[in-house]
Amino acid sequence: MSLNFEVNKVDVNFAVVGQWLELMSVIMLAVTESVQEVLTVTQPEGRKGGYFCLLDHSTNTFLIPPALIGEVANGKGGKYAGFCMEKANRTSIWMDADQNHSSDPWLSWESRNPDKQRWGGAVGCGIHGQRLIFSFSGLPEMGDEAAMMLVAAKMGVAEEFIRRAADVSGNAIITEHLRFTEESGPTILPLVLN
Questions:
Q1: In degrees, to the nearest 5, what angle opens at C-alpha 64 toward C-alphas 169 and 179?
Q2: Is the Cα torsion angle 156, 30, 138, 54 positive or negative in sign?
Q3: Rounded-to-integer distance, Cα 192 and Cα 91, Å
Q4: pTM here?
Q5: pLDDT beyond 90 at 74
Q6: Which domains does the chain possess?
Q7: What pLDDT, on the 0 to 100 scale, is given for residue 190?
Q8: Of 77, 20, 85, which Cα lies nearest the Cα of 47?
Q9: Burial class (CB in 10 A: 0-12, 13-18, 19+), 150
Q10: 192 in helix, strand or coil?
């Protein structure tokens, strides 16, 4: 008995694959830095991280499925990973439904419902011609959102959009701590009292 296999030729543009992998690496670094900056400023008791995911709005595909950033205690990993995906999916639906929205970013905050365990923490925005949704769960709600706003800013979303979004949700972490500098780009800094 012999087995015959036919291999289909697939053309792979390794330059494009390399660029995509580089972009995903840049995003993961921005997420890790942003979560750490939010943790440094807010110092939430018992919280050291959570789950991040990245959803492509146009294809409704998770480009980065829930990934652990930092540490999650007390066996809450599954819960936070689920919240992370729910926020991203809900924001995608909100982006489709909100035909009157003038410009990005879109926030899961805008469709939050605590009675149904639907929280803020996802930010949808246009980056390099793509509509992406950054989502995080594991910190207190405003921390999740601030970290994702900071990621969007690090990926090139204009400061005015980030500040407008922070005004929508009343996110004091962003309104009080976000700084844009030429040397380091957007960052969240502790307030310096003189």
A1: 40
A2: positive
A3: 34
A4: 0.85
A5: no
A6: 14-177 (3.30.450.150)
A7: 54
A8: 77
A9: buried
A10: coil
